[in-house]
Amino acid sequence: MKSSQKWNLHRLSSLSLIFTTSAFLIFFFSSLQLNQIEVQTKLNYLPTKFLIFFFFLNALFHARLELWSIYDDYFKGIQKKTFQFTTYAFLTILLILVLPILGVK
User: Fold this and answer.
1) Residue 52 burial (C-beta neighbours within 10 Å; 0-12, 13-18, 19+)
2) Which of 20, 37, 59, 83 has the fewest Cβ atoms nearer than 10 Å?
3) Residue 34 pLDDT > 80, yes or no?
4) For residues 29 and 84, what is the distance between their CA atoms, to the nearest angstrom?
5) Is 49 helix (H, G, I), strand (E, B) or coil?
6) pTM of the model as a whole
């Protein structure tokens, strides 16, 4: 991938992460005074699930982009591939562990 494409992906990922984080914080602060049942009801709405899922996927994608930049700068050859594979494995396991929490089956 060209460095200009990587830079555009970084910018897009950062911008969308700002918006999803803002929406997530608005949801969080609006839910502070609610009891557990009301919060669970709000979390069961499809738009809320979508927002949290998109926030999580965007954060994982952003982390992957940032780690790839570090790997490109500091590692070469087999060592770089090893770290990339380890990162993919870790992010995939993390995604599999979080999906049931979000209610995605």
Assistant:
1) buried
2) 37
3) yes
4) 36
5) helix
6) 0.75
